């Protein structure tokens, strides 16, 4: 698609020289051009600059007077392929049961796994595509989606095949993650190692053969999988060409970050419980810490200590964690606002975390995450707003007028 945006009040996240990710003080700066144009050719960002240098060409034009343009959100952590919902557990929590107590009684991930195992691939696809369409309208232009609600060979592969179909049929960038080690299924209640061996020996070869995943993930947490289990899964993933990511330090710190860094994982996600040594371990590495503020909000658990981490020089990405148990929301606008309101990130830091750093956490930093020549024209056109500070300020009320994927407006 070819299109010329004119009179853009402010073009946000303009990176003339491509960056891989931003860390520490670098996150404070968000380069913009006021009164700008943006030219899209063949779905890519072809050029941009001051309006006074706008090319005079015959092309479809969109007048953006009073409005801003920024790169689409990059949501590097979701579980948006799932079956049914868990609103019953939500009410149980209001009545005083904790997330862990509910999980221990067979609720939680096992509850979703039962539902998913009983759902056909077609039905699962239809439920999931509705969520994907919803997040596209909310401004997301790149998303990672995990398996992990199957917990049997058939059901895990069913999830991954649904993700593959979504990838093929939608213009949004999608990365797939194998999260077989999300919980220990009842059939392996007293045989966790047997379950891990099944994942490694039985499922991984099929994933490789059918090209079903880009990344491998594990829930490294007390009552789920240990640091040693994490080492095993990451090593096995590497053999099959899958880059590591970990769910880690959500409720307890059990050494998963150290194992992750040792294995050069791309990202460590959750991080609600961070010890000083965990922050130290992440310094000077290529591993992206990812915070999930909507999960903290929904479960009333601590927020990732973003201030402490960024002030220590670390990078940080923001993602939704869209899933039926801990975060039934895929709204990146809410994530950005909550990061500012509850985690004391500045709007500049939050927007950097939700665009270029999120792109890095999916190995997509060369394609999306900034306004840079040659990147995909995945864009958010805002309503008329005074400043980009209004984006997190108007929490719960996205100020998006239109969204574009590869330069095409998505209605
Ligand atoms: N913490 C582990 N997994 C998901 C939630 C799983 C669920 O409750 O269904 C998460 O990232 O929050
Ligand atoms: Zn998650």
TrEMBL record:
<comment type="function">
    <text>Catalyzes the hydrolytic cleavage of the carbon-nitrogen bond in imidazolone-5-propanoate to yield N-formimidoyl-L-glutamate. It is the third step in the universal histidine degradation pathway.</text>
</comment>
<feature type="binding site">
    <location>
        <position position="77"/>
    </location>
    <ligand>
        <name>Fe(3+)</name>
    </ligand>
</feature>
<keyword id="KW-0862">Zinc</keyword>
<comment type="similarity">
    <text>Belongs to the metallo-dependent hydrolases superfamily. HutI family.</text>
</comment>
<feature type="binding site">
    <location>
        <position position="77"/>
    </location>
    <ligand>
        <name>Zn(2+)</name>
    </ligand>
</feature>
<protein>
    <recommendedName>
        <fullName>Imidazolonepropionase</fullName>
        <ecNumber>3.5.2.7</ecNumber>
    </recommendedName>
</protein>
<dbReference type="InterPro" id="IPR005920">
    <property type="entry name" value="HutI"/>
</dbReference>
<feature type="binding site">
    <location>
        <position position="86"/>
    </location>
    <ligand>
        <name>4-imidazolone-5-propanoate</name>
    </ligand>
</feature>
<feature type="domain" description="Amidohydrolase-related">
    <location>
        <begin position="276"/>
        <end position="408"/>
    </location>
</feature>
<feature type="binding site">
    <location>
        <position position="247"/>
    </location>
    <ligand>
        <name>Zn(2+)</name>
    </ligand>
</feature>
<feature type="binding site">
    <location>
        <position position="323"/>
    </location>
    <ligand>
        <name>N-formimidoyl-L-glutamate</name>
    </ligand>
</feature>
<feature type="binding site">
    <location>
        <position position="326"/>
    </location>
    <ligand>
        <name>4-imidazolone-5-propanoate</name>
    </ligand>
</feature>
<dbReference type="GO" id="GO:0019557">
    <property type="term" value="P:L-histidine catabolic process to glutamate and formate"/>
</dbReference>
<feature type="binding site">
    <location>
        <position position="325"/>
    </location>
    <ligand>
        <name>N-formimidoyl-L-glutamate</name>
    </ligand>
</feature>
<keyword id="KW-0378">Hydrolase</keyword>
<feature type="binding site">
    <location>
        <position position="79"/>
    </location>
    <ligand>
        <name>Fe(3+)</name>
    </ligand>
</feature>
<feature type="binding site">
    <location>
        <position position="149"/>
    </location>
    <ligand>
        <name>4-imidazolone-5-propanoate</name>
    </ligand>
</feature>
<keyword id="KW-0479">Metal-binding</keyword>
<feature type="binding site">
    <location>
        <position position="321"/>
    </location>
    <ligand>
        <name>Fe(3+)</name>
    </ligand>
</feature>
<feature type="binding site">
    <location>
        <position position="321"/>
    </location>
    <ligand>
        <name>Zn(2+)</name>
    </ligand>
</feature>
<dbReference type="GO" id="GO:0008270">
    <property type="term" value="F:zinc ion binding"/>
</dbReference>
<dbReference type="Pfam" id="PF01979">
    <property type="entry name" value="Amidohydro_1"/>
</dbReference>
<dbReference type="GO" id="GO:0005737">
    <property type="term" value="C:cytoplasm"/>
</dbReference>
<feature type="binding site">
    <location>
        <position position="250"/>
    </location>
    <ligand>
        <name>4-imidazolone-5-propanoate</name>
    </ligand>
</feature>
<dbReference type="InterPro" id="IPR032466">
    <property type="entry name" value="Metal_Hydrolase"/>
</dbReference>
<dbReference type="GO" id="GO:0005506">
    <property type="term" value="F:iron ion binding"/>
</dbReference>
<feature type="binding site">
    <location>
        <position position="79"/>
    </location>
    <ligand>
        <name>Zn(2+)</name>
    </ligand>
</feature>
<dbReference type="InterPro" id="IPR011059">
    <property type="entry name" value="Metal-dep_hydrolase_composite"/>
</dbReference>
<feature type="binding site">
    <location>
        <position position="247"/>
    </location>
    <ligand>
        <name>Fe(3+)</name>
    </ligand>
</feature>
<feature type="binding site">
    <location>
        <position position="149"/>
    </location>
    <ligand>
        <name>N-formimidoyl-L-glutamate</name>
    </ligand>
</feature>
<keyword id="KW-0408">Iron</keyword>
<dbReference type="GO" id="GO:0050480">
    <property type="term" value="F:imidazolonepropionase activity"/>
</dbReference>
<dbReference type="GO" id="GO:0019556">
    <property type="term" value="P:L-histidine catabolic process to glutamate and formamide"/>
</dbReference>
<comment type="pathway">
    <text>Amino-acid degradation; L-histidine degradation into L-glutamate; N-formimidoyl-L-glutamate from L-histidine: step 3/3.</text>
</comment>
<feature type="binding site">
    <location>
        <position position="182"/>
    </location>
    <ligand>
        <name>4-imidazolone-5-propanoate</name>
    </ligand>
</feature>
<keyword id="KW-0963">Cytoplasm</keyword>
<keyword id="KW-0369">Histidine metabolism</keyword>
<dbReference type="InterPro" id="IPR006680">
    <property type="entry name" value="Amidohydro-rel"/>
</dbReference>
